[in-house]
Structures
1.
Amino acid sequence: MRPSVWTLFPLIFSLAAPPSLGVAATECKTYTHRREWRLMSEAQREDWISSIKCLMSFEYERLSFDNTGGRLSTMQSIYDEFAFAHDQLNDFVHMNAYFLSWRAFLHIFDTKLRDTCGYKGPTPYWDWSLDVQDLFSAPVFDPHPTHGLGTNGNCLTADCRVHDGAFGPSPLSEAPAPIFAHPIPHSLRRNLTLYFGEKPDEKPFNHSLSQTHIANVTQRSTGDFFKFQYSMTQIHNDVHNFVGGDLAGTCPDQYQLVQGVDCATGFTPYDPLFWLHHGNLDRLYSNWQNADPLNFNSFSGITLHPKNISDTRFTRNATAGHILLFDNLSAPKHVNEVGFPTRWFGERRLEGQGGGRKKGRVVT
Ligand SMILES: *[C@@H]1O[C@H](CO)[C@@H](O)[C@H](O)[C@H]1NC(C)=O
Ligand SMILES: *[C@@H]1O[C@H](CO)[C@@H](O)[C@H](O)[C@H]1NC(C)=O
Ligand SMILES: *[C@@H]1O[C@H](CO)[C@@H](O)[C@H](O)[C@H]1NC(C)=O
Ligand SMILES: *[C@@H]1O[C@H](CO)[C@@H](O)[C@H](O)[C@H]1NC(C)=O
Ligand SMILES: *[C@@H]1O[C@H](CO)[C@@H](O)[C@H](O)[C@H]1NC(C)=O
Ligand SMILES: *[C@@H]1O[C@H](CO)[C@@H](O)[C@H](O)[C@H]1NC(C)=O
Ligand SMILES: [Cu+2]
């Protein structure tokens, strides 16, 4: 199967949802172009990357002051706000029935790139199933200083910092790598690996990423949103875990040194691959919705792994009227308002305290 080129994805689904869910039919007026990263021209890739750097150059007022109104020493940018907001919301957006509806977060980001930084190109995604045989050589790991997203980090001596690509130190201007503010200033980190290396029977992270697996999941989850979403969560986690570093929420070494503790964080959007990975999950969700009419009407709502069952925010009975929060990025939205049923991302329990694991990693 070839990747779709210039596929049109409705931002708002135009189908009327079942009346039992009380979802109003929304007319589809706006479309966004999506394109697989490797099929974008070098100029388009550079444009997208430059727009992200543009968001990094805008100070974000709300995050730039402490509680007493004093200015923090590190600049906090609009891009930081996306990572910060994701971290704040981590427990509410993963491993529950609303995971896929968090497509709205992706849309808010895409809109920000366009409205604030003038981005006009396609919305990129990474179809990792094309690279499943050898994820390490995937074209998203490109060292080019202006249109590449960088390769693996140096985990032996540099805390997994990425040393090339547009988010590494500049070989031309000798400028240092862009700095991310949370949870402590650091630059992009990756630790590509197929295994946690903890259990003898561990499956490699690419086992769930083949087109055969996706097709199987799609066939076996007809009309069963819960089942589909559960599989998508596993697939989602495998990519986060394969890339490691920031995308897996592993804490920078510096944090441990300065704060004296390890940290569990949800700053995963710092790796720009976050947007490409979630763009692909969104595409797969859309494919699933279109694979069978039963899928469009399916929205089963129990939480996958409620962390605290008595916390009313972790309701077991998901409804399309559920309210999604976006920290300071947007006013809250109802699930049915962001297009129903929709996609987005799931995951992650962080482990880093004790045990053999060095740092937090995304796990199911
Ligand atoms: C996973 O990656 C390994 C090593 O690159 C490869 O041998 C294996 O075939 C891949 N698995 C799948 C399902 O493609
Ligand atoms: C990189 O990942 C491997 C495999 O999970 C892990 O053993 C190692 O500790 C990680 N390295 C760093 C520096 O986090
Ligand atoms: C499809 O999924 C089922 C259940 O997860 C599994 O038992 C079966 O082996 C899978 N088939 C293929 C072809 O991967
Ligand atoms: C679970 O949530 C409830 C309601 O918010 C709270 O009162 C309780 O302390 C929480 N329990 C734990 C173990 O966090
Ligand atoms: C979920 O729905 C069932 C029956 O529809 C009800 O008995 C139960 O109390 C509900 N649970 C919550 C947490 O709302
Ligand atoms: C974001 O924060 C600013 C400053 O606190 C506030 O004025 C604004 O209303 C907030 N926006 C949203 C969408 O929450
Ligand atoms: Cu994710």
Note: Residues 225-243 form the longest helix (19 residues).
2.
Amino acid sequence: MLQASLYLYALICTIFVHPALGFPVFGTPAQAKAALIRVKLIPDVFPKFDPRLTLGITYHVNGTALKGNLGTNLTPADTANRPVWSIPDIDFKREFERKTFVVGMVDPDAPSPTNRSASQVRHFIGGGFKLEGTVLRNTTPALSDYLGPGPLPGSPPHRYATFLFLQPKDFPTTPFTTSILNFNLSSFAEQVKMGLPVAGNFIMVGPAPS
Ligand SMILES: *[C@@H]1O[C@H](CO)[C@@H](O)[C@H](O)[C@H]1NC(C)=O
Ligand SMILES: *[C@@H]1O[C@H](CO)[C@@H](O)[C@H](O)[C@H]1NC(C)=O
Ligand SMILES: *[C@@H]1O[C@H](CO)[C@@H](O)[C@H](O)[C@H]1NC(C)=O
């Protein structure tokens, strides 16, 4: 009986979770919305969020793919290099296949979740992302190059939120010259008229062990 239930469990995991079978491993847009509201990224970063797509975050570390999904705990070493962003559920959303996207990543917990006086920190802003299969490849230089998470010693883990937008006409091409501190992603989104994100995801990163 036990053996039979274990077998059934393994079968269910294989069918629903195994990435090689092409099933989503990042959860649905509805799950992303619920999770971002639960950890208050909504409304801390955007007042509203009605995602239509799933945003995948995959870091490649020493030959291992680490998926960052709805609060995965990762280390500064894991996240030192820019991840690959993807839209794993694109098969279900053909209307988005030929679109151009903007990716924005911010830390709203700087210098710490209890003192957010330097928030948001701008960790990445870039446009010109186009789909190659399910992977988002950028075709233009970033406006704000990727900066890996580096919370100060003693701080609890920070929320690192990444949002995906449809790229508006006349999206800027000049890199930022302003400080990465005290950035405001929703006011930037308003300024460049890209509106609310179509997808979002987040990871948690604490300080590197000292
Ligand atoms: C990757 O490998 C190098 C060399 O072995 C090591 O120094 C580094 O800590 C590894 N990175 C992670 C995130 O494990
Ligand atoms: C909050 O952090 C800033 C540094 O960004 C510091 O100057 C300030 O004193 C801190 N405030 C409190 C209440 O700890
Ligand atoms: C960001 O800007 C919006 C206006 O676009 C404002 O409503 C919001 O309070 C700002 N957020 C922060 C954290 O300052």
Note: Strands lie at 56-61, 64-68, 72-74, 84-86, 100-107, 121-132, 135-138, 158-166, 199-205.
